[in-house]
Specification:
Layout (H helix, E strand, L loop, with lengths): L2 E3 L6 E3 L12 H5 L8 H10 L13 E5 L11 E5 H7 L4 H8 L4
Antiparallel strand pairs: 1-2, 3-4
């Protein structure tokens, strides 16, 4: 694993998982309101839209709503239900790379 500089905050971090294209550290989404309680209704809408299953592997346990592009956090097209494992695999990747790994969201 190599260390790279986060394009969001400038901190050095070690690439993880499918990190060959990883450009952002895990703090990038946390800084952008990831834990904001106003997202609760929106996250519920995303979970219902995705039938409470991971969009990558269809697992129905340990689900999170992943923000594909934190700049678009209120746009349903940029939110996807993922299991914790799949979320960890794509965390920090560029938004376009994430969309290809998750699939088209309607």
């Amino acid at each position: 694993m190599s260390e790279v500089e986060c394009e969001y905050c400038g901190e050095l971090f070690k690439e993880q998982g499918l990190g060959t294209h990883q450009r952002f550290c895990g703090g990038a989404e946390e800084e952008d309101g990831q834990d904001d309680p106003t997202h609760t209704d929106l996250e519920e809408t995303v979970l219902e839209r995705d039938n409470r299953a991971c969009r990558r592997c269809n697992v129905q346990d340990d689900l999170v709503v992943h923000r594909i592009d934190s700049a678009q956090s209120d746009n349903l097209r940029y939110l996807a239900t993922l299991c914790v494992r799949c979320d960890g695999e794509i965390e920090g990747l560029h938004p376009r790379t994430k969309r290809t790994k998750i699939g088209e969201i309607r």
